[in-house]
Amino acid sequence: MSTMEPEVISLARQLIRLPSYTPDDAGCQPLLMNRLGGHGFQGEHHRLGEVDNVLMWHGDQPGPALMFLGHTDVVPPGDLKSWRHDPLSAVIEEGVLYGRGVADMKGSVAAMVLAMEKFVGQYPNHPGKVGLMLTSDEEGEAIDGVRRFMPMMAEKHHFDWCLVGEPSSSESLGDTVRVGRRGSLHANITIKGKQGHVAYPQNASNPVFLAGSAIAEMGQFQWDQGNDDFPPTSFQISNIHAGTGVPNIIPGVLEITANFRYAPVSTQASLAKQLSGILDKYGLDYELDWVLSGEPFYCEDETFRQAVSDSIAAITGIRPEFNTAGGTSDGRFVAPHGVATMELGPINKTIHQVNECEKVSHLVQLEGIYLDLLKRLLLK
User: Fold this and answer.
1) Where are the alpha helices (DSSP H) in the chain?
2) Any idea what the Cα angle at residue 355 is, between residues 354 and 359, rounded to 5°?
């Protein structure tokens, strides 16, 4: 390891080498708590189920408060033979750092930690508060992570803004900032027929055939028009199951798993009403079971948006595009507490893939953006 290696890269490599496959933190959070504790940060750790959660903060003076949000868990590496390097080796090759989680999101976490250390080093008596919330349950079920931890911390700590380190960038660092996300609503649809022998269809009622027209309409249905900031709500079927596995039995039940990614112009109630309307239209005998993964959120705080844009421009020379594309993030559990929430992180092209990677220079710049943002928001 070069002695000239930027400290943010050294920390990122330390984190990548820890096998924190969700929901196992594998020692990432204790490492960071010890490190930040040496810079005067306080911390509160809670293990909920099999998930580790921590909030570290510095400052108790009146004034603005910014919380960084990240996760230490990563997805499994997949086929190890397909990787250029061992996914836990954190190899640097031609200015690119390889490893599982470097982009999603151990690189961001390292950049956040270094930015906070430098900020409190330069301004030990800064106004307001800077914090870092971490969970090991973002890539998994996301039940015992920020979903449960944030309400506990919101009773003790106030934050004006939250910046999530999710890999938002597309082609170059900082070119895209997520200023909101669509809601995610799962629908489990059970359509009932009558089981029977395939040789005697007159004595049975096949739910697959019964549901065919309804499924076709669901795929074409316009659930809403979206708005200027969000695309129209989308509906996708992710799984269909019917039958017993025996080839001569007509199934009695069809089970459909589907998902709505919905704009704020829709709600769970409005989507449920529309879906029921389609199923009723075709006279189906059905049951619906709903699981709300997260409500949509949108950041309208102009102070926050302008500061993020200015920090990116100061470090990279570009101005970001603000959009609400992509999936969900833990930001959906923070925004409902009245915290203006956005996402800014590395390039997302290789996340969850083999050979996940990010340029060393990008992580150095990301630290600079985060540090600049702290100065703009807390020292204004």
Assistant:
1) 7-16, 28-37, 107-122, 146-154, 207-220, 268-281, 302-316, 331-334, 360-378
2) 145
Strand 234-242 to strand 321-323: parallel, antiparallel, or no bridges (unpaired)?
Answer: unpaired
pLDDT tens, position by position, 9-35: 999 999 999 999 999 999 999 999 999
* Active-site position among 24, 25, 138, 343: 138
SS3 167: coil
Determine the pLDDT at residue 61. 84
Contact criterion met (CB below 8 Å) for 116 and 373:
no
Distances (CA, A) of 263 to 227, 293, 294, 296, 313: 8, 14, 12, 7, 29
CB 173 within 8 A of CB 105: no
Spot the catalytic one: 73, 117, 224, 343: 73
Residues 301 and 161 sit within 8 Å (Cβ to Cβ): yes
Instruction: Calculate the CA 138 to chain-centre distance.
Output: 6
Q: How many CB atoms lie within 10 A of CB 287?
A: 12
Three-state DSSP at 242 gives: strand
Cα–Cα distance measured from residue 139 to residue 73, given in angstroms and rounded to the nearest whole number: 7
Confidence band for 3, pLDDT divided at 50, 70 and 90: low
CB 107 within 8 A of CB 346: yes
Burial of residue 90 (number of CB atoms within 10 Å: 0-12, 13-18, 19+): buried
Q: Residue 309: CB partners within 8 Å, gap ≥ 6? A: 177, 319, 320
DSSP H helices in 223-342: 268-281, 302-316, 331-334
> Is the Cβ–Cβ distance between 225 and 147 less than 8 Å?
no
Active site (annotated) includes residue 137: no
Q: Does a cis peptide bond (omega within 30 degrees of 0) precede residue 207?
A: no
Q: Alpha-carbon distance 154 to 256, whole Å?
A: 37
Give CA–CA dist 363/361, Å, rounded.
6
Which pair of tokens denotes residue 210? 């019964």
Helix and strand numbers, DSSP H then E, in the chain: 9, 19
Report the DSSP pairing between strands 180-181 and 297-298. Answer: antiparallel
Q: What's the chain's average pLDDT?
A: 96
> Does the annotation count 93 as an active-site position?
no
Residue-level pLDDT at 1: 43
